[in-house]
Amino acid sequence: MFDVTNLNEISNAIIEGEGDVALDLTKKAIDADIPANEILDKGVIPGLQKVGDLFGKGEYFLPELIVSGEAATNALELLEPILSKGGAPSRGKFAIGTVEGDVHSIGKNIVIMMLKGNGWDVTDLGVDVSPEEFCLAVENGDFQIIGLSSLLTMTMPNSAKTIESLKAAGLRDKVKVMVGGAPVTQEWADKIGADAYAKDGPAAVKVAAALLGKS
Amino acid sequence: MQKLTGLERMLKTIKLQEPDIVPHFDGIDKRVRDAIMRDTNASYEDFIEFLDIDGIVIIDRVYTWSYENLGISKSGRQVKRCQWGATIQFTAEETGIPVEPAIKSEKDLDSYVPPDPNLPWRYEWLKQLVKRFKGQRAIIVGCTDVFDVAKENLLGDTQYYKAMVKNPDFIDRANEIALNYQLQYVKNCIDIGADIIFVNGDWAMTEGPMVSREFIKRFVAPPFQKIVEYAHSRGVPCLKHTDGNIWPIYDVIIDAGADGIHPIDPMAGMDIGEAKAKFGDKVCLLGNVSCAFSLVSGTTEEVRQETKEVIRKAGKGGGLICMSSNSIHSGVKPENYLAMVETIHEYGTYPLEEHFNNLVEAGSGIW
Q1: Which chain A positions have a beta carbon within 8 Å of B267's beta carbon?
Q2: Is there a contact between B211 and A61 if contact means CB atoms under 8 Å apart?
Q3: Which of A11, A20, A212, B340 has its CA 20 to 30 A from that of B90?
Q4: Confidence (pTM)
């Protein structure tokens, strides 16, 4: 019988990147009538937080981050339908895309995995997203934060253009803007008027929570 | 000192000997070249001679790989299938970005047919360069890192990274495909007259290596080392490009046999003076005037100052090829690139003590 005290096994499966184990344990926890939000809060989130810590300490790298993120995604795919049916509140609504001219997706996808695994409602706007498309998303969605990802030095200026477009459309005050990506720095974020900079996926979770005063 | 040819200058520098002037070369976008030449019909070779640049580099992905047109993306950009089978979306630059890999699962490898490195057309431009520049300027052949080909073009980054943890044999098989092609390509290039091999592909990001040191040594460095060993067996030096913070792994690159490391990425906090002190007595340093900031948005004076600083920090005793921190891409101001080249020619003449005080010593750091 799976009991609530074993939720740390889900955490461990995520930390170890054991996707099948994470899936199996999540199924068992659900079958044992453990509330989905408890599985999330005591199983998935602590696991991903540990993964983030290991990444921050330089003990985990992109491969470990990806297999752990996928293990968390496996668990979430079972939990999300139950959570949404039960009307469980998310930590916030986040839209993210790679800026115009840039089609890299790996950084964005890692951020999405980490945010979702930490209870955020995330919309993936895709790659090569124009300033107009970001504006449209902000106008039509009730996102609290948008994330602008760029992995090329040449496409960093398109983050600035997107922020300018939000201002021009009168949407800048409606949403917080977070920037990130390999060449992006805090200095650059400050220069272009972004609200925050996150250097990687685990940092994005902390920064997003801080932006909404939930840290 | 007697004036050296560009080739002699480059080779002497790579051997960590003091040349007559700090050498320079770069990958230079056509738009920047055309703006400087004020002539869209001028060839790359004409430009190299016009600015008296010491070497010319062939980027293999741009000039020697085949692409099949697939159409136009939603944002009006060209989409092509590269010779490895990956779908590539092009941006404003000359090199595209893989958006879908050739291999979707390990089973696909069983029937995979790799591209043929021996097709004569791949070497036509190299032959022209040899005819025009051999013995005078360094003919540098870019060779995409096996790690990059296998990760970006064959497997895709997510599948590759997962396989590193879950299925190492899959990586080994993909690496072997890429390595066999690149070894034959390098052999053919050296047969024709290439002077230097320049292996391009990032092992690190701004924060640090993409993968652990253990994975670098297991999967990433060995195929690179095979390329280096082959080039060395033919008496040809081999340079390694990787962006990012390489402090945790620079010794692995050196141990694999690299003769030079490019670009000592300033965006990742790499200081070329510190690199000179730590490993400037082991390998040549290439870089590192910022093509993210000063060359793009700085004044010509700022570029001159930064170029002088690179020479001051890393030029002592040779072992510095002064160039941009990645490439002269389309966003670089032409006047800033000119300012960099002029400054190298003006302040790069040896002995550097005539221009600078406080030159940084190689090998004075903690190894």
Answers
A1: 153, 183, 185
A2: yes
A3: B340
A4: 0.89
